[in-house]
Design a protein that fits this description.
Helices cover about 50% and strands about 15% of the residues. The protein has about 550 residues and is α/β, with parallel strands linked by helices. The protein is globular.
């Protein structure tokens, strides 16, 4: 039997009943698998985590098991979610468990109405199905059922899924009644008597474990945890998935804009976690001095490449003259071109000293792309370079393209952009369903712009007959199953599109920025599609997080 790699125990009350479930499950699973414990939010001074670690049988450090404290989580939930996912991957890499029991927040005298939802979001971020523990004390059977329903909905809305229920705090008289109350939900369920636990009290823990084992069928629990669960891809889970994949690939990436604070902060993060090797273009002493002022301690792990290194300039100039001989390149012209950090950085990739490049925090898109087009060039059979964004929504990831490069692509180019974008989706684990966007859905409107998309769709069908594609289609009919049922009835792709192809740069660029700013979606990219080696462009308004993500996806693409 293959168990889920992790699951999260959540409770509306987070009190003794939840602790009985957590202690019982950790004790049960530790006899079956190498079992770790993880506490996303827990006070550094609480003692129950130590009891769970002891029950697991693993010699885990509480400082690694606990990710963040309740105050930090309340003060900045977004930062806390990022820290929690990072801590979870640290625990996984440190202890390599077969299964991880994640235990939500503890009962607190500070009443925070958003905390259960926050716990459910963490479960979704960690791709962890939920075991729900709900207390029956002072509730009728119907009140219990409605409480469970409400919390299942909250878990589903957050992007995770409930796989089992424990009804806690029961009396001997209502054990069966309370369990039967939740059976209509169709989930595995067990009822447990009320047991009081004081952390660190061996007698209490023994009594709790006895109550758990007397009322819970171990084989049934293992079967429930082995069932697949419906889980969403949240922005946090996707971004840290990127970092994990990049760490596995472990490529060397050039950063030509070493004088920018955002670049060196991003580099410090990436180097501290050994996600990539970096070549930072600039003067080593100047950059390290600036890093020290910013409190950054890991920049000395980078390789630095001065633009005044005569031996490197000679090598680059000779290669430039070779590559651009037909364009009249001379050594003098080459040396002038190499004063541009983008050209200089691109040549490090051309010479095989790096696997990819990320630029654009200071330089324009044109300055980033032009050297790549001239020196790295496009893949065989590719007619156009395009720019796609990975749009990380609350519960899934989509591709928006072209949002960065081509002003007004013709039908053949638009079809090529769609094919490239479908391949980008596949490379990041997304099964592509392509929507060729227009103001018309399947003939509802007419005009030359519609004709262009119709022709591009036909070319794409011929180019990739097995690729699911619909077009022309309006965004709402591509996005929404309900709208598609009216506007594109019977079309199997409409309403399920996850690769959105915009007809021109104006539409694409406006759309991705509007969606990013108004919905809270995280935009990762642009990914420059079609080049022989990955060169990716940053927005000049890029945040440190954006740069980290772009470096990671560049490493994965390489």
């Amino acid at each position: 039997m293959s168990l889920t790699t992790s699951f999260t125990i959540l409770s509306p009350e987070s009190a003794n009943g939840r602790n009985v479930v957590a202690y019982g499950l950790v004790s049960l699973l530790s006899r079956q698998r190498k079992t770790a414990v993880f506490r996303p939010v827990a006070c550094r001074h609480e003692l129950f985590t130590n009891d769970l670690i002891a029950a697991s049988g693993m010699n885990m450090s509480p400082d690694i098991v606990r990710a963040t404290c309740p105050k930090e989580a309340r003060d900045d939930t977004d930062r806390a979610r990022t820290a929690i996912v990072s801590a979870y991957y640290r625990l996984q890499s440190t202890y390599t468990p077969e299964i991880t029991v994640i235990v939500g927040t503890d009962k607190s005298r500070i009443a925070d109405p958003s905390m259960f939802g926050f716990n459910a979001e963490i479960a979704a971020d960690l791709k962890s199905p939920v075991v729900l523990a709900v207390c029956s004390i002072d509730r009728t059977a119907n009140q219990l059922l409605e409480t469970v329903k409400a919390h299942i909905k909250a878990v589903n809305d957050a992007g995770s899924s409930v796989v089992a229920l424990f009804i806690t705090g029961c009396t001997e008289e209502n054990l069966d009644e309370m369990k039967e109350a939740v059976l209509p939900l169709g989930l595995p369920a067990w009822s447990l008597p009320a047991v009081s636990i004081e952390a660190g009290n061996g007698e209490d823990l023994a009594r709790a474990l006895h109550a758990f084992e007397d009322n819970v069928d171990a084989s049934a629990v293992l079967s429930a945890l082995a069932c697949p669960a419906a889980l969403s891809e949240t922005p946090c889970s996707f971004q840290f998935g990127l970092l994990t994949k990049a760490q596995e690939a472990h490529k060397t990436i050039v950063l030509p804009e070493g004088e920018d604070d955002r670049i060196i902060k991003s580099a410090n993060f990436l180097l501290s976690r050994s996600i990539v090797d970096l070549i930072i273009v600039g003067e080593r002493d100047d950059i390290l001095t600036r890093a020290k002022k910013l409190g950054l301690l890991n920049l000395d792990h980078a390789k630095f490449q001065s633009m005044h290194d005569e031996a490197m300039l000679e090598r680059m100039a000779a290669k430039l003259c070779e590559l651009r001989a037909s364009k009249g390149m001379t050594e003098e012209k080459a040396r002038i071109a190499l004063r541009d950090p983008s050209y200089f950085g691109t040549m490090l990739v051309v010479l095989g000293l790096a696997d990819g490049l990320v630029s654009g925090a200071i330089n324009s898109t044109a300055n980033t792309v032009r050297p790549a087009l001239q020196l790295i060039k496009t893949k065989p059979g590719v007619s156009i370079v395009s720019g796609a964004f990975l749009m990380c929504f609350k519960d899934h990831v989509a591709v928006f393209s072209d949002c960065a490069i081509n002003l007004n692509p013709n039908p053949q180019q638009l079809a090529d952009i769609a094919a490239q974008s479908a391949q980008t989706a596949r490379s990041f684990g997304i099964d592509p369903k392509v929507g060729m966007l227009s103001y018309s859905t399947l003939g509802s409107g007419k005009g030359p712009d519609v004709d262009l998309v119709e022709e591009a769709t036909a070319i794409l069908h011929e180019k990739e007959p097995d690729l699911p594609v619909v077009g022309p289609i309006q965004f709402d009919a591509a996005w929404s199953e309900e709208v598609a049922a009216t506007k594109a009835k019977g079309n199997p792709v409409a309403g399920h599109v996850n690769v959105f192809i915009f007809p021109n740069l104006s539409a694409g660029n406006i759309a991705y920025k509007a969606v990013q700013r108004s919905s809270g979606a995280v935009a990762v990219g642009p990914i420059l599609q079609g080049l022989n080696k990955p060169v990716n462009d940053l927005s000049r308004g890029a945040l440190v997080e954006d740069i980290i993500n772009t470096v990671a996806l560049t490493a994965i693409s390489a």
